[in-house]
Structures are given as C-alpha cells and as structure tokens.
Specification:
Low-confidence stretches: 27-34, 167-181
Shape: globular
Helix content: 10-25%
Largest sheet: 6 strands, antiparallel
Strand content: 25-35%
Number of helices: 3
Distance between the termini: 75 Å
Mean pLDDT: 81
Radius of gyration: 22 Å
Order of helices and strands: HEEEEEEEEHHEE
C-alpha cells in the first residue's frame, strides 16, 4: 500500500499528514473510575471470513472506516457482571473532522505516532494493549457504550516485579522477634 493510487483513503491521506493530533480526551490523566477497561487488540473474523487484526470498510454512503477488536483484560467484573474476556469492536471513522482524533487514538493504541492514514492498515494491532474509559449514552432510545478516552497501558510483567523474599521475615518497627516454642 505504498502508492497513493492503492491507498483506500484517497484525498484524506494528504489532510491526515497535515493535521495535528487532537488534545487529550476526557481523561484528566488520573486513573479513571470503575468504567475504565484495560484491553488488548485481538484478531477477529472479517466479513470475508478471514482472521485479521484490523478491517477496512466503507459504508453505503461512502464513509471510510477501520475496525479493530479488543478483549477485556481488566477488570474481572463491573457491578457483579463478568467482563474479563469479553470482546468489543472499536471503529475509527475516517472523515475530515475525525482525523485529529483518529491520529491521536490510533497513535496511543499502536504506541507510536502515525504519519500516514494507510498505517492504520499496515500496522500490526494484535497484542497492543491500552486503557480506555467507557460511558453509556442513549441515542434514539438505544443505550450504547462509548469510548471517552484512551490512555497508554502495558500490563505488569511478573518477572519485572521485584519482591524481597525476606520481606515476610523482617521485623516491623517496635516489634520483638518471634521465639520458637
């Protein structure tokens, strides 16, 4: 997809290269409340029946979009409902007004700044992790969840945790050592 003629985004590609990323989303930078999810991009079955980690599509009106799929890693439950392991799709609507947001959010998820729209299709999404805030909103009588923001997030690796194996045996301040019986 290196040539412009093969680029499905057409004229939007030039606009994307000129536009600045949008500023921070609704997150204040602090850890979001219970409606924050830690997610991993996962492969999914495309409309053509193939396993993919992203899918380009056009709506009947001509709007271009890229679909990715997330699996919830954390939390395990929200309000007594099991959410860990659930899959959720996220769609990047590639329109002129959305370009700053596409640029910002895709860069956060992929972990590097995008310089071209076609990188949405050439980048590897599977395995990328992110934290996102979610809120419910009502539209025409339907309630749906909407992403409010993305934050960079990497799961802690067990090997990186430094645990002092003698921590359990150290005396707390002001305590006497235990005696054997």
């Amino acid at each position: 997809m290196s040539s412009t003629s093969n680029n499905p985004f057409g004229d939007l590609e030039t606009d994307f290269q000129k536009v600045e990323k949008a500023g921070p989303g609704m997150s204040s930078g602090r850890i979001p409340p219970y409606n924050a999810y830690r997610l991993m991009c996962v492969p999914f079955e495309s409309k053509d029946g193939e396993q993919v980690d992203k899918e380009f599509f056009k709506t009947p009106t001509g709007t271009k979009a890229v679909r990715i799929m997330f699996e919830v890693l954390e939390p395990e439950k929200v309000e007594d409902e099991e959410v860990k392991g659930r899959s959720y799709e996220h769609v990047f609507w590639v329109t002129g007004p959305n370009l700053p947001y596409v640029k910002r959010d895709a860069s956060i998820i992929l972990g590097s700044d995008l310089t071209k729209l076609e990188e949405l299709l050439t980048s590897v999404w599977a395995g990328k992790t992110v934290e996102c805030g979610v809120k419910d909103e009502s539209y025409n009588g339907f309630v749906r969840s909407k992403v409010t923001h993305f934050n960079p997030w990497t799961p802690e690796k067990q090997a990186e945790k430094k645990v002092d194996p003698k921590a359990e045996t150290k005396k707390a301040a002001g305590q006497k050592a235990a005696t054997a019986f």
